[in-house]
Structure formats: C-alpha cells, structure tokens
C-alpha cells in the first residue's frame, strides 16, 4: 500500500468501537465531538510567528452561521505544526484520496499535483489503532451519536446516550462526520469534527480521527461519498 510521504519541508516533526475518549466529562465530549489555505498563507515560507498566528486566527475564527454557531479555536492551545497548510506530498493515490497518518497526527487530502492539504488530527489511543483501506460510505452534519454496546460495557456512564445523543457542540461527532466503510459495511470508524484544540496531536479516541471543526468543515466540503481513505500503520 502506497500512502505517500511528505518532503522534509512539509513534515514537522483509528477506532474499534466508536469515537469516545476514555472519560466522559465535558472535555471528553469535546475531544470526541471556512476559509481556504490560500487565505491562510502557510503553503510556503512564513515571514514571522506573528504572521502565522494572525493568519491562523482568521482560518480558525468563529463560524456563526452554523446550525449551532461554532466558536473560534483557541489557537494558543494548538501546536503551529498542526495548522492547516499545503505541503509537498508524493503518492500514487488519486487526487481527492484521504490519507491518515496516525503516527504523526496528520490527515492529508491528496491534491493530485505532488501536493496535499494537511490537517492536524487526534487519533486512536493505544489498543484502538488500526490501519488499512476504507471509503467514505456516508456523510452527516451535526450527527446523532450513539455509543456502541461494547463501549457501554466498558464505560457504563455512556448508557445515558444508548438511544442517541442529539447533534450539538457537546456531541462527540461535532459539526461534520465522514463515516468509513469497508466492503459495504460500516466500520464504526469516523473522521469527525473536534471542538477540543488540546486534543490535536494526541491519541485519545477509540479509533476515530478528529480534526478541528474549521478543518473538518473544509475537508467535508471537498469530500464526496465513495472517496477512498487510507489509514497508515501507526
């Protein structure tokens, strides 16, 4: 499987049963729960940290017109290497393919010209990592989240949502969700919108992959059903 690789300049150095982090407090809900890069200005050389932060503040600003208005991201809680940007990325995968790199906490959208749009991500914690090929079987906005039975057995406090948790800012799936399928069957894995900036760059979920809400909305709008998703080994 050829997932591709980023060049040195572009590289700054998923879920068995649902998306929930280990604990079910408010931060866990948010952890489990726009503008283009051209406006971002991070595709090439950044003139100063101040410029980077100013551009990031624009890209990760509030989205007031959503069904549930999305607040601005506190970018001070995100390592700048996880800001959305365009990077060199060589791969044999077709344009539009999504490649998840859990080892480095990145999600790439292949652009087809030797480059990719790169997003910072959170991924599955130890014991919940996975790899392989999948595809986007369906898409949803402000989806209802229902914990799997296996999760309820592990975390009985999730039982209160056995009939579903309505969409909203506290819902683990957030504003947008890409549901991953293999061979016609739903895997229970998703790429979802996270409202928790501190989760980016960490392994906290039960295998799902989370992007900041502003990044997820950006990716979602460019991702049709049937899009191929490649999850690299961690």
From TrEMBL:
Gene3D superfamilies: L,D-transpeptidase catalytic domain-like
Top-rank taxon: Bacteria
Keywords noted in UniProt: Cell shape, Cell wall biogenesis/degradation, Glycosyltransferase, Hydrolase, Peptidoglycan synthesis, Transferase
A GO CC term attached to the entry: extracellular region
Span of domain L,D-TPase catalytic: 96-232
SUPFAM superfamilies registered for this protein in UniProt: L,D-transpeptidase catalytic domain-like (SSF141523)
InterPro entries xref list: LD-transpeptidase, LD_TPept_cat_dom, TAT_signal, Transpep_catalytic_dom
Pathway named in the protein's UniProt entry: Cell wall biogenesis; peptidoglycan biosynthesis
GO biological processes: cell wall organization; peptidoglycan-protein cross-linking; regulation of cell shape
UniProt key word Lyase: no
Family from the record: Belongs to the YkuD family.
Name under which the protein is recorded: L,D-TPase catalytic domain-containing protein
Protein species of origin: Methylorubrum extorquens (strain ATCC 14718 / DSM 1338 / JCM 2805 / NCIMB 9133 / AM1)
């Amino acid at each position: 499987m050829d997932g591709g690789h980023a060049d040195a300049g572009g590289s700054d150095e998923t879920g068995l049963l649902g998306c929930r982090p280990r604990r079910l407090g408010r931060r866990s809900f948010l952890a489990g729960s726009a503008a283009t890069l051209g406006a971002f200005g991070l595709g090439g050389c950044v003139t100063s940290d101040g410029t980077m932060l100013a551009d990031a503040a624009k890209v990760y600003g509030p989205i007031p017109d959503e069904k549930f208005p999305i607040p601005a991201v506190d970018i001070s809680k995100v390592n700048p290497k996880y800001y959305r940007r365009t990077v060199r990325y060589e791969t044999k995968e077709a344009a539009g393919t999504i490649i998840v790199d859990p080892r480095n906490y990145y999600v790439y959208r292949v652009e087809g010209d030797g480059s990719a749009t790169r997003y910072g991500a959170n991924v599955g914690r130890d014991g919940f990592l996975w790899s392989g090929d999948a595809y986007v079987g369906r898409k949803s906005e402000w989806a209802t989240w229902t914990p799997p039975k296996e999760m309820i057995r592990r975390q009985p406090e999730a039982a209160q949502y056995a009939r579903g948790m309505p969409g909203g800012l506290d819902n683990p799936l957030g504003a947008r969700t890409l549901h991953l399928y293999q061979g016609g069957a739903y895997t229970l894995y998703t790429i979802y919108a996270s409202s928790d900036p501190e989760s980016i760059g960490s392994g906290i979920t039960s295998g799902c992959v989370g992007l900041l809400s502003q990044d997820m909305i950006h990716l979602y709008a460019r991702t049709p059903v049937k899009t191929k998703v490649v999850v690299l080994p961690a």
